[in-house]
Design a protein that fits this description.
single chain, alpha/beta, 2-enoyl-CoA Hydratase, Chain A, domain 1, Lyase 2-enoyl-coa Hydratase, Chain  A, domain 2, six-stranded mixed beta sheet, three-stranded mixed beta sheet, 11 helices, about 15% strand
């Protein structure tokens, strides 16, 4: 894996770091590939209960694409389509991760950075956070797969406002547009993201994965079928249910095992 994508572990919490601080963590091709690889690996690791995604340092989450590689990697439609397939792999890996994913957002979260954050389940930023997708200023189009997470979060009308105007706006407006889920003082972003991940990790991991799966399924307009409905009750046959039930009756904190 590229050293521009790092994985850190603290117990059941994994942190994926976009690690190009000299460019405020702008995304290049190797980083998209590394991000896909990181998320694919974490997705099959059942010892993980929550993933935090963050930029290196606290100056920026990610300001978007590393423009310096456009000449070699994205200078025409054929190259851009190949590059888009690399981004698609990262999108799929983030979206399909069964574990809850928390975005820890410091500073700019723009373009590809906003795409990454939009694929996370919880997005926590500081009051100085900056958001937008100003691709119009480069004469570029946001591809379907790259636009879809923003449309899901904010709605097609707000997504179009962001794309057509190309403004970069602040955290309060981002919260109003449902692009972020929580805004805290800048100094508290890391602690708040870590506290959120810790709360998730303390819960029953199978339940967290089921809730995430069900929330994704409810985005599909097709009616939930009988087999899918039956899965909602599978939790009653888990060891974690029995542990949680016993802990509640005994007025103590449960320690879930993921079975």
């Amino acid at each position: 894996m590229s050293q521009t994508i790092l994985i850190e572990r603290e117990g059941a919490i994994a942190t994926v770091v976009l690690n190009q601080p000299d460019k405020l963590n702008a995304m290049n091709k190797a980083m998209w590939m590394g991000l896909a690889q990181a998320m694919q690996g974490l997705s099959i690791d059942n010892s993980v209960r929550c993933v935090i995604v963050r930029g290196a340092g606290e100056k920026a989450f990610c300001p978007g694409a590393d423009i310096s590689e456009f000449e070699s990697e994205r200078s025409n439609a054929a190259q851009a389509a190949d590059y888009g397939r690399v981004i698609q792999q990262a999108i799929d890996a983030l979206w399909n991760c069964p574990h809850p994913v928390v975005a820890q957002i410091h500073g700019p979260c723009v373009g590809g950075g906003l795409l990454i954050a939009s694929l996370c389940d919880i997005r926590i930023c500081g009051v100085s956070g900056r958001f937008g997708v100003p691709v119009r200023n480069l004469g570029l189009v946001e591809a379907y797969a790259e636009m879809a997470p923003l449309v899901r979060l904010a709605g097609a009308d707000i997504a179009l406002e962001i794309l057509l105007e190309g403004r970069v706006f602040g955290a309060a407006e981002a919260r109003e547009k449902r692009i972020v889920t929580r805004v805290v003082p800048d100094a508290d972003v890391a602690a708040e993201a870590r506290a959120s991940a810790a709360r998730i990790a303390e819960g029953a991991p199978l339940v967290a994965r089921w809730h995430k799966k069900f929330a994704r399924r409810l985005l599909d307009p097709r009616p939930v079928n009988a087999l899918e409905s039956a899965e909602c009750y599978s939790c009653f046959d888990t060891e974690d249910f029995r542990l949680g039930w016993a802990a509640f009756l005994e007025k103590r904190k449960p320690h879930f095992v993921g079975r």
